[in-house]
Amino acid sequence: MEIDPINLRKRYEEIIKKGNEDEKNIENYISELRKLVLLHGLPDENEEDENNMKDGSGCTLRGLIWKIFLQVDNINAKEYISLIEKGRCEKRLFWKIKDDTCRTFKNDEIFHKRVPEEQLVRLLNTFLNKCENQNKTSELKLTYVQGMNLLCGALLYTMPEIDAFYAFDKLISDHCPLYAVSQIKGVYQGIYLFDQIVKIVDPELHTFFQQTPDYNKIYFFSPIMSFSAGTPPFTELLHLWDFMFAFGVHLNVVFVVAQVILLRDEILKSKNLNDILHTLPKLNAKLIISISIYLIKQLPDELYEQLVQHSTTILDQQLSFSETSKEN
């Protein structure tokens, strides 16, 4: 049964309020939020959301819910200011950030009206200042990689800068650290798993793809690395990430498979994959999510477990692209 946007918003707000008042049972309220996302998605922004972001007084409803799903429980203004005061991070990385931030959702006016580039640069630079401290004692050496600007940008769109910083730190450090190491091992594992998923859910399409060596690296490296953020429209991406944050960043890979399944007939008829896959079609979050749920049900338990772990854990099966091609 459809719920009108006003009542849907009230449902979300009521659950958030109950969770704040009853922290001992917070997991129950998070489950309720997940169920609402699954069944109804999030309502579009309203005037209150817009005003909160204009004056910096609070998060949008989406921002609040993303923080809950990411389990952001530490907002430390004093720490954030001290990290800003450390100044610029390593020169090479700083200019890498600058090269990317100017292209962040480049053609989306809605995004640029709300998120100035200098804010995006400051947050990413500050994150690297924090990483410099963390990397001294951590086995995983986090750094800046392409695609971070997009994740960070969407967070800044939905919440104030300091909230976005701690949400971004939580997302990278806890949910996808292997996407943020210099070797981007999580991305490569995601690309390998993409191939394995296609092999199971659509053998005909997988056989067709094998005519192009390293097809998964050539065409799907970018959407997997960017969590589909390179494909417009931005508003649909937000709905897609509502579901991803609710149920796990491993869905990133399945979302890309779903987008390819939508193109399967065109792909199988094509003589040149580059003409079809150079850019994926505009996002349709509802359709992609629906197909993704269907695809996940077809995956063997072992493969699904690898998928869940791929962004945080080095998998046992580490295959280079040349080895993957030979195996297939």
UniProtKB/TrEMBL annotation:
Subcellular location, record wording: Cytoplasm, Cytoskeleton
GO cellular component annotations of the record: cytoskeleton
GO molecular function, one term: GTPase activator activity
Keyword Hydrolase among UniProt keywords: no
Top-rank taxon: Eukaryota
Transmembrane regions listed in the UniProt entry: 243-263
Principal place of residence: cytoplasm
A Pfam family reported for this protein in Swiss-Prot or TrEMBL: RabGAP-TBC
SUPFAM superfamilies: Ypt/Rab-GAP domain of gyp1p
Keywords in alphabetical order: Cell cycle, Cytoplasm, Cytoskeleton, Membrane, Transmembrane, Transmembrane helix
Residue span(s) of domain Rab-GAP TBC: 56-248
InterPro entries, alphabetized: Rab-GAP-TBC_dom, Rab-GAP_TBC_sf
Family: Belongs to the BUB2 family.
PANTHER family for this protein: MITOTIC CHECK POINT PROTEIN BUB2 (PTHR22957:SF263), TBC1 DOMAIN FAMILY MEMBER GTPASE-ACTIVATING PROTEIN (PTHR22957)
Protein name: Mitotic check point protein bub2
